[in-house]
Specification:
Length: 288
């Protein structure tokens, strides 16, 4: 008897979601049951095969205004979100109400919005994975950067990230995450010691990490960390060659969330790069 397929919904249908949709349509262990987007968007009602340039799939893009009904009729086990924090909070709360686990690939969430998502997951007893970068290589870069920073704590540290011209947030969520991880490992306050770019006629005020953003062309994503002392320089870099770089990691995240009990998980822990966090219920907050 064949294993039951994992039913997956996609929220948002931009560049990243389209790459994920191509993967989900090929993966025999999952079934893409829903693609939802802005109710007034130009893709509403179109077959996703037509959008992706492949044969028709019978699955059309639906609007968020029908989301509650769609969750009932399609019954996804997992929702993968690539929208924005404002739309994401409302839509993911609706999904959680119907028991869907949440994988959030969107960047730009504030601390308050992240806590609101955690509270939603806790309230409806579903899993939540905040995954601003679904790349095995990037997560390896983060793990390596933490270890290197603890040894190179006396070095100056700068981070440079590059993305395509259409990316809305700068610096990237991944670059900020890298900077915060490094800061915590070298004794820099991540809330005060991170700066975005450099300008003006001034020198550094104590220890700090600067993040520089480049936007241009169709660059998928490049993240580089530079460690510099008076005597030597060390750089580590990750580059995504195409958006398929994210699907290998996503497959592992989907499988992990599907078979583990509800909880708040990180990609690092799913990949085995850090020890599992003890599962504790978090305090509920008003997310109405």
């Amino acid at each position: 008897m064949s294993a039951k397929k994992i039913r997956v919904a996609l929220f948002g249908f931009g560049r990243m979601s389209q790459a994920v949709a191509r993967y989900l349509l090929r993966d025999t262990s999952v079934k893409l049951v829903l693609v939802a987007s802005r109710s007034n968007g130009e893709r509403i009602g179109r077959d996703i095969g037509d959008i992706l340039g492949i044969p028709t799939t019978g699955l059309t893009v639906k609007g968020y205004d029908q989301l509650a009904q769609l969750m009932v009729t399609t019954r996804p086990n997992i929702v993968i979100d690539f929208t924005n924090p404002e739309a994401g909070l409302a839509n993911l709360k609706t999904a959680a109400k119907f028991g869907a686990h949440l994988i959030v690939g969107t960047t730009g969430y504030t601390k308050f919005q992240t806590e609101a998502l955690r509270s939603i997951a806790n309230m409806y007893e579903v899993s939540l994975v905040m995954a601003p970068n679904l790349s095995i290589g990037i997560n390896m870069l983060m793990d390596s950067a933490k270890k290197m920073a603890s040894i190179l704590s006396g070095f100056d540290i700068e981070i440079i990230e590059e993305h395509h011209r259409h990316k809305k947030d700068a610096p990237s969520g991944t670059a900020i995450r890298l900077a915060r991880l490094i800061a915590e490992n070298v004794g820099i306050n991540p809330d005060k010691g991170l700066i975005f770019g450099r300008q003006g006629n001034k020198t550094a005020k104590g220890r700090e990490i600067a993040i520089h953003a480049i936007r241009g062309g169709g660059t998928i994503g490049v993240h580089k960390i530079v460690f510099i002392s008076e005597n030597e320089r060390l750089e580590i870099k990750h580059e995504s060659l195409n958006r398929n770089a994210f699907t290998d990691c996503l497959r592992q995240v989907i499988e992990y969330v599907h078979v583990h009990p509800p909880g708040i998980y990180t990609v690092e822990e799913i990949l085995g790069l850090e020890a599992p966090t003890p599962r504790t219920r978090i305090a509920k907050m008003d997310v109405s």
